[in-house]
From TrEMBL:
InterPro entries for the chain: GerAC_N (IPR057336), Spore_GerAC-like (IPR008844), Spore_GerAC-like_C (IPR046953), Spore_GerAC_C_sf (IPR038501)
Organism: Paenibacillus algorifonticola
Subcellular localization(s) per the UniProt record: Membrane
Superkingdom of the source species: Bacteria
Every Spore germination protein N-terminal domain range: 22-199
Record domain Spore germination GerAC-like C-terminal: where: 220-376
Lineage start: Bacteria, Bacillati, Bacillota, Bacilli, Bacillales
Membership in a protein family: Belongs to the GerABKC lipoprotein family.
Protein name, UniProt field: Germination protein, Ger(X)C family
GO BP annotation list: spore germination
Amino acid sequence: MNVWIKWGLIAGLLLLSPGCFDSKPIQNMAYVTAIGLDYKDGHFITYAQVLNFLNVAKSDKNEIGKNIPVWIGRGTGKTVTEALSSLSETSQIRMFWGHVKAIVVDEELLKSKAIVRQSYEAINRYREVRYNILLYSTKTPMIDIFKQKSIFNLPALDSILDTPEDVHAQRSNIDPQYGYKFIAEFNEPGITAMIPTIGITKEVWREDAQKKPMFKITGAFFIRQNEKISWFSETELLGRKWVQKENKRSILLIGNKEEPTATLVIIKPHYRIRHVRNNKQLQFKVELKARAFVEEMIKDATVKEMEALAAKAIRDEMMATYEKGLATQTDLLNLFAELYRSDAKLWHQLHNSKQLLLNQNTLGQIDVKVTISNTGKYKGRL
């Protein structure tokens, strides 16, 4: 057969065959971008934040500040799957779950570890939902969380809820939590899993004279196998940021808190936690090195004086946070987690004999060395 006839037949078949039998136009699907989970009176209550990507897609025709509507669905059921599936009964069009960016869990659900386990097992078993979704807790009504817009009335996709990385790179107080990481921490007996708490504040931003609510990370819940769940505010967790591997940039006031000497920016601190046993008593030592630059000078001080004040401020924050966790035996500095990773045999030995407890002496020496590498446009005195 002539080669041209062959190619002609192939081209004709390609033109006659349909492309995708089950494809749907982008505007004819409801894209779920966030899921909310609550549990009351033996029933799961689920929420779905739905966006139409035609409204949020970047183009030259987008108007900055234009109010983009958010649709919120609410379902109930005896299981998570039943509650989520009930949403499709009235959604009118197909719901697509492959673009879920965040899961928000209500405080009530966290009180039962069995319910927590059942919830993440059900969601992660569903093949469209990915493992790298963000995980939050909240004390705010779920409807208020899901209807919240970003600055300039941008959709939630451009907020802390769905894209916290940019804000975290400027102020690394509490690390974002991802689903796969939480599952690993929750299943490890030696690690305390953290879930950041997202709330809303109306006291910071205004559009002209009108107050505009904005998302804010207000603290975090800490949950550990077979132990009580605890919550701590962002202020109580200030010392935790120094032992977070994703700490990129932190603001530090040095000197007197009421009349500070200077404001420093700490960049990517590096820490190491060691453990020793003195007279059979377990004790930890923290070593931390950090590079800093001067953001603001309020009182005259030499570079060496500011480095010493910065080291003291970091030590004080770490000790204050550690002591906040003593009452509930919450390991806020991840001391036991480091022991579990470096010496699992000793961890199991102490855990089985019920000696794995925090006290005033468990956190021993904190060695901090801060090096100021830049004093800004003005030269600092040595």
